[in-house]
Amino acid sequence: MSFFYNMMTGVLTACLGVALPTLSEAQKRPSEASLLAPVVTEPLPWVPFQVDEHLAVQLPSPAHVLSLPPEGTYPAQGYFAPAATGAFIIVRLQIPREALAGLAELGQDRFFTTITQGALTSMQATRVNQTRFKVGKFEGLNVGFRLNAPTGDGTTQGQLWALRVRQSVYLLQSLTNDSSSTAHAAQQARFIASLDINDAPYTAPDVAAIAKFRTGRFQYLESSLKSVTVERSDTTQIEVHAAKDLRIVYGVRWNADGYDLTQRSSTSSIGPQLQGKTLHVRITGVEGNVYAYQATLLGMVLTGKIRKLK
Predict the structure, then answer these.
(1) φ, ψ at 103 (rounded to 5°)
(2) Can you give the pLDDT at residue 17?
(3) Counting Cβ atoms within 10 Å, is residue 119 exposed (0-12), middle (13-18) or buried (19+)?
(4) How far lies 122's CA from each of 32, 112, 117, 199, 239, in Å?
(5) What residue ranges define each of the domains in the chain, with the CATH number in brackets?
(6) Which stretches in the chain have pLDDT values below 70?
């Protein structure tokens, strides 16, 4: 799973540890998924995307892991999906219980306003309007904004939706490079209408269901990681990315709801800084030979699915 670490190297910060990439940061990373340079020119079929066990949504194109600034306070993950007239971004911020209790004293309105203002400040954007929105029993804040300086591709404005489920805060963002586009407005409405949210507490899968994943050969289902082979024994996991000449060896320790991976050796350029570090993996669901996971490493939260091949 260190391959994920190569793709996503930061977390969010600001008043409450919340920040999105600034314009200059995005422009410095033209090879990465950028907030400001969507490359889709034709409509694509909408695809379902499971952010985590609490939130799912549909997007106009497959989501990619988004690199975030490295100075964050709380564990976070980000995803980016380009559209014909803009882009959609999803950021999930995980706030510890003790911190959440203190923030809740601000009251819901101030809580969401502070969160969104931190994001807007980082994006160099100005709040134009704001309203409450509701999905089922969940309420949040919808903020319309404009960028203080239009980008090279003409992106000038967007919408930001903030909501909280248990310990997670979600920032859902829509950017457009065509302020008069009815097509993007329709996509935006579909994006929000597709939200599927629940606050059910985590229940570990049955022990017997988890047991079959202790050993074997596995494959990540994320398209960017499908070329990675995973071999796991009771005590060791080896991940190999042949095309990039990467090989990582972990020690494995199983627990009640998943397993811990501690790096023993790596040919990755970031291997030395991860040596001896532990990736905590929680299995959040099992369906046949596939399991969903949520992993935490150095302040990052990673989610995905893995299939057992044999």
Answers:
(1) -70, -35
(2) 38
(3) buried
(4) 19, 16, 9, 29, 36
(5) 7-197 (3.40.1000.10), 207-308 (2.40.128)
(6) 1-44, 67-75, 103-104, 150-155, 179-181, 298-301
Residue with tokens 């060791």: 236
Q: Which pLDDT does position 200 carry in this prediction?
A: 83
Number of alpha carbons in the 13 Å side-chain half-sphere of residue 93: 28
Q: What is the pLDDT of residues 178-191, one digit of tens each?
A: 766 688 888 888 99
Adjacent-strand bridge partners of 77: 92
Asked if 284 and 295 touch (Cβ cutoff 8 Å), the reply is: no
> Which pair of structure tokens corresponds to residue 57?
């949504």
Radius of gyration of the chain from its Cα atoms, rounded to whole angstroms: 20
For 147-165, how does the pLDDT look when each residue is reduced to its tens digit (9 = 90+)? 887 666 666 889 999 998 8
Distance of alpha carbon 242 from alpha carbon 187, whole angstroms: 38
Burial 133-165 (b: 16+ CB within 10 A, else e): eebeebebbbbebebeeebeeebbbbbbbbbbb
The C-alpha angle 100, 101, 105, rounded to 5 degrees, equals 110
Paired strand residues for 305: 292
Write down the pTM of the prediction.
Answer: 0.66
Residue 74's pLDDT is 66
User: In one letter, which amino acid is 236?
Assistant: T
CB 124, CB 23: distance < 8 Å: yes
